[in-house]
Amino acid sequence: MNSIYITQYITFANFANLPLRTLRLITLALISTFSQAQEKISLEKALELAKSNNIDLKIADKEIEKQTILIKTAFQPDALQIQYQGGQFNSVDFDHNVSIQQFFPLGNVTKANRQLQEELAKLAEKRKALSVYEVEKAVTLAYYQYLYGVSVQKLNTELNDVYTKFLKNAELRFQTGESGNIEVISAKAKVKEIETQKAQLEYDLAVYQKQLQFFIQTNENIIPDEKTALQYSFVQNTGDSNAAVLLTNFYQQQISVYQKENNAFKAQRTPKLGLGYFAQTINTESLFQGFTAGLQIPLFGAVNTAKAKAAAMSISQSQLALDKSKITLQLQQEELQTNFLKQQKALEYFQKEGLQYADQIINTAQKSYANGDMSYWSYISFLNQAIDIKKQYVEAVHNYNQSAVEVQFPTLKNY
After folding, report:
1. β-strand partners of 99
2. Residue 177 — φ and ψ, nearest 5°?
3. Which of 81, 198, 393, 401 could bridge 350 with an S-S bond, Cβ 3.0-4.6 Å?
4. Which segments of the protein form a coiled coil according to its record (predicted)?
5. What is the pTM of this model?
């Protein structure tokens, strides 16, 4: 629809689609500023800042202000007509004639125009509400994307501690002749690998931080508060979702606009009343005055009739669009809910059992290896199993958070 604009946001996928060379250059630029003073903020604060700073929302505010100002244009009289006539129109003498005429709309024209403009102002407010929704979703995803990076970083630190102990044990066993140098080399390689990953994670966090800063649209070097629970918490709505309410309100308001537009075009078919005043000389003597009154009758009103019919068709189109959006949103929510339950089930396993198994495996394997009760290859096998569980847990939390945010903020289309 020509009267509708869609606010677009850069998503995380946009960054992934950039050429590798460009990504490296961007990342180097980001990491140079990442170590500067950072302000830790909560999600609530991040959302508050985004609603205050986001330029798209400021543009939406200006649109509301503009449509509100245009309400004053409801009364639309024709331009004042002033005419002068001079010449020999009464006698051979040169006389003068000055006339003024003004036509005013009759009937419900002014009322219909005002009602239409009031509905357009309300429609601008509904559009802004949708834009706020999109900003909230983008900020929430970016916020927890950063926390995901932090959780990966913490896991990396934990693994570094594990393999550092492994390296010490391997070196001790090698010195006492209990094992070969292969264990020491393998342990050193793993520690070096983890240290390299740590450096790479710093770059990842710099990218995540700039993504959050982009959506909040601030020059401040802000980061999420690391004390925030890694698992996203939200209350599921048992009734209509916020997305459904926003979409319904938007389309219903759009229908209301077209209804008022239909009325405005119909009102344009009514006549206009004209009032005038004239003054003239006769034989260059005296000043004669008078008043005029008349009507402008739109004999050829097919144009406004056609526009009224078109507005009526737009009402039907908006109703169909609303029906389609409801069906699409309902199916999307069912799909998102199913995926959310799947991710929730996986997370519950790691929280209730998986992590405990991983810690038990690591502790037992370390003690057994240190005491010489376990071979190097068995130790590595168990260690990799435990590490894999911890990695899966971090991914499970991340997948759960992404799914939870999507359930709370399903994607709105076609508005």
Report:
1. 83, 278
2. 80, 10
3. 393
4. 106-136, 184-211
5. 0.79
Q: Which residues contact 383 (CB under 8 A, 6 or more apart)?
A: 162, 166, 361, 362, 365
Q: Which two tokens stand for residue 26?
A: 């961007």
pLDDT of residue 345: 96
CA-based torsion, 31, 36, 42, 43: positive or negative: negative
- The pLDDT of 180-202, averaged and rounded, is 83
For residue 336, pLDDT over 80 is answered with yes
Q: Are 222 and 216 in contact (CB under 8 A)?
A: yes
Residues sharing a CB contact under 8 Å with residue 154, sequence separation 6 or more, in sequence order: none
**Number of CB atoms found within 10 A of residue 405's CB:** 22
The pLDDT, as a whole number, for residue 319 is: 94
Residue 174 burial class via C-beta count within 10 angstroms: exposed 0-12, middle 13-18, buried 19 and up: middle
Give the tokens for residue 351. Answer: 């929280």
What pLDDT shows up at residue 25?
Answer: 52
Match 């245009």 to its residue by tokens: 70
* Domain extents in the chain: 12-408
- Spatial separation of the C-alpha atoms in residues 171 and 175, rounded to whole Å: 6
Structure tokens given for 381: 């096998």
What is the arithmetic mean of pLDDT over 66-80? 90
Is pLDDT at 22 greater than 80 in this prediction?
Answer: no
Q: How confident is residue 4, by pLDDT bands cut at 50, 70 and 90?
A: very low
Q: Is 177 in contact with 118 (CB distance < 8 Å)? A: no
- Distant-in-sequence, close-in-space partners of 167: CB < 8 Å, separation ≥ 6: 184, 187, 188, 190, 191
Cα(10)–Cα(23) distance, integer angstroms: 15
Residue 124, both tokens: 């601008």
Q: Are the C-beta atoms of residues 156 and 237 closer than 8 Å to each other?
A: no
Q: Determine the average pLDDT of the residues in 39-51.
A: 93
